[in-house]
Design goal:
By secondary structure, this protein is an alpha/beta fold. 33% of the residues lie in helices and 16% in strands. The chain is built from eleven helices and 13 strands. The protein has helices at 19-32, 49-61, 83-91, 120-129, 149-164, 178-186, 197-201, 225-235, 253-256, 271-281, 288-300; strands at 3-7, 11-14, 35-38, 70-76, 95-100, 133-135, 170-172, 191-195, 242-244, 308-313, 322-324, 327-329, 340-342. Strands 2-3-4-5-6-7-8-9 form an eight-stranded parallel β-sheet. It has a three-stranded antiparallel β-sheet with strand order 1-10-13, covered by helices on one side. It has a two-stranded antiparallel sheet with strand order 11-12. The longest helix is centred in the middle third of the chain and has 16 residues, at 149-164. It is globular. It starts with a strand and ends with a strand. Bound molecules: (4S)-2,6-dioxohexahydropyrimidine-4-carboxylic acid and zinc ion (ZN).
């Protein structure tokens, strides 16, 4: 199989930032995805319906002329958030979901949730109205090893949450462990997960290959090889509970190549190319359509896109760095490339 046409995929988890950075990165996502779930971890975070509408308008203004792209907005949950505001935004069609960042778990999460009990009323409301909860699934307890934080989160927070609120629809975002795969597989239809391209391609050795590799540092951090293999098995399994979410998270090089570098891998420039390479390596290319184009819409109760995207076997060129408002960003795959390319992107 050297060519593949699938309904236009969607990215169910992306960071596009704001300002000049947003202007530079939105075209990469809009080139290959019809819709994308936009993460709300701006400074300040997107916690009101008015802020989400204004942010959506700024993103739409950054979409190149003639390109059709729909940003799907999310609400950043804080301890004090008003359940009425969250429900109002969902019912008005502004927010498609709300995001739970445990406080201090990752980039711009200082306003995140200190303890799940603090948002119990809003979670109950979301369960009632059918609004999905998107979860950054890592504990922030400094005594828990960084490679165990996802598995511990599942035991300490997620399992009890699903037992307490069984109707709440949850996406465990950017899963990185065999424990997360097993949890999602064993849960009912209300629980799904996104998988990034980079977690399917790198394991934790890649972060230290020949020296420290800041552009491969993200959160949750890549795990050991056994976990990567489980993620690949889940992604290509055809199980609709696993779908595409790039977690493309651009940071300027000066913030990555630093004494205390930011977490985030910028994969938007060649995301579908990377996923296609993985499905091809697994000899499961026909299953890319479900993972990239059908299972996400089914979970979010949205139609499958009617446009198509065509991919072709053959090398992709990926820029060494991309200019964004006077700074540079290094994309995932820079210097190596991928074995597939997007034809009509
Ligand atoms: O690596 C990451 N980068 N993980 C996250 O959870 C947030 C993201 C970002 O916003 O930079
Ligand atoms: Zn993210």
């Amino acid at each position: 199989m050297d060519r593949l046409s699938i309904p236009m995929p969607d990215d169910w988890h992306v960071h596009v930032r704001d300002g000049a950075m947003m202007q530079a990165v939105v075209p990469y996502t809009a080139r290959q995805f019809a819709r994308a779930i936009i993460m709300p971890n701006l400074v300040p975070p997107v916690t009101t319906v008015a802020a989400a509408i204004a942010y959506r308008d700024r993103i739409l203004a950054a979409v190149p002329p003639g390109v059709s792209f729909q940003p799907l907005m999310t609400c950043y949950l804080t301890d004090g958030i008003d359940p009425d505001e969250v429900a109002r935004g969902f019912e008005a069609g502004v927010w498609v979901a709300a995001k739970l960042y445990p406080a201090h778990a990752t980039t711009n999460s200082a306003h995140g949730v200190s303890a799940i009990q603090a948002i119990q009323p809003v979670l109950e409301r979301m369960a009632t109205i059918g609004m999905p909860l998107l979860v950054h699934g890592e504990v922030t307890d400094r005594h828990v090893d960084i490679f165990d934080r996802e598995a511990v989160f599942i035991q300490r927070v997620l399992r009890p949450l699903t037992e307490a609120l069984p109707t709440l629809r949850i996406v465990l975002e950017h899963i990185t462990t065999a424990e997360a795969v097993a949890f999602v597989e064993q849960s009912g239809p209300t629980i799904a997960a996104t998988i990034t391209a980079h977690h399917l391609i790198i394991n934790r050795n890649a972060l230290f290959e020949g020296g420290i590799r800041p552009h491969l540092y993200c959160l949750p951090v890549a795990k050991r090889e056994t976990h990567r293999l489980e993620l690949r098995r889940a992604a290509v399994s055809g199980n609709p509970k696993f779908f595409l979410g790039t977690d493309s998270a651009p940071h300027p090089t000066h913030a990555k190549e630093a004494a205390c570098g930011c977490a985030g891998i910028f994969s938007a420039p060649a995301a579908m190319e990377a996923y296609a390479q993985v499905f091809d390596e697994e000899a499961k290319l026909p299953r890319l359509e479900g993972f990239a184009s059908r299972f996400g819409p089914a979970f979010y109760r949205l139609p499958v896109n009617d446009r198509t995207l065509t991919l072709e076997r053959g090398p992709t060129d990926i820029a060494e760095r991309i200019e964004a408002g006077g700074a540079f960003i290094v994309p995932f795959g820079a210097g190596t490339g991928f074995a597939w390319r997007v034809l009509n992107g």
